[in-house]
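I am sending you the entry underneath: sequence plus fold tokens. Let me know what the token row says about the fold:
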Amino acid sequence: MVLLGFMLNYALRVNLTIAIVEMIFDDKSNHTVSAVANLTDTFNVTEHPEHIEQTRYHWSTKQKNLLLGCFFWGYVLTEVPGGRLAEVIGARRVFGYSTLLASVLTLLSPGAAAAGFGWIVALRVVLGFLLGATWPAILPMASKWIPPMDRSKFMSNMMASSLGAAITMPICGFLIAHFGWESAFYFTGIIGVMWSVAWFAVVYDSPAQHPRISDSERNYLLKVLPQDSGKQHTSVPWRQLLLSAPVWAIVITHGASVFGYFTVVNQLPTYIESILHYNIKHVVIIYLRVYRTLEFANPIDDFLEQLLKSIT
């Protein structure tokens, strides 16, 4: 459920990056296609097909980039509070309700775009605010469910959830090509609501609270993992964290990593469509090749970490 939840987390954020290719009316397309006609044979570039009839907006390049980036305004605000909130009220509620509300907002995205550019920007900011809390929220739950020797495997599988973007792209590309860009939001939103219902049905914050696991499994987990009572919560040493060099090294390294990653996620579909002049179906094929390379890294990372543990 955690893996599927984070795959959905990616799906809810990248649906716009593929849909925006068809959301914006490109009044330069007629001139651009004719200008590159001689290049199509040399570079195997496919010209734009006849687009289906659907709503398009006259948004500028600046507005388009603003819409693609505003998700992260809210996303960065809930990274730290999301983890703390999960410690206090439980990861089940934080992760579940954040994803559920984000899925509902995704279903409302076409309506927000029709209402005006400001509305869709505001919706994406709130969407980022909700999904930003999910990543840190799962760590308190993992501390109660995953034995120490299995955590690297759990984390590598959890991080493999970026596969959700790779799966979302071809599905949304097919839907957009046949039913219009609105279908990308409806599809991911409905899947998100369905997952949220399943999450609350089968997931609990700790083994002690779960009504359906076996006694042997519950006793084993309670024995190997510390289980707090939930009545008192350890205070956070904010000063020590803010002055810790290793903490800032992790923050800077991760920040640089995700900057490059999300630049590709946000801009690659538009680049392929607008600059290389591939159609929507070819965009997703190229995208899949990028993610195919990425997904090989997680099992390798887990193997190396297990090897280091066995040596030390």
About this structure: The first helix runs from residue 2 to 23. The CA atoms of residues 33 and 278 lie 10 Å apart. Residues 29-50 have pLDDT under 50 and may be disordered. The chain has 18 helices and no strands.
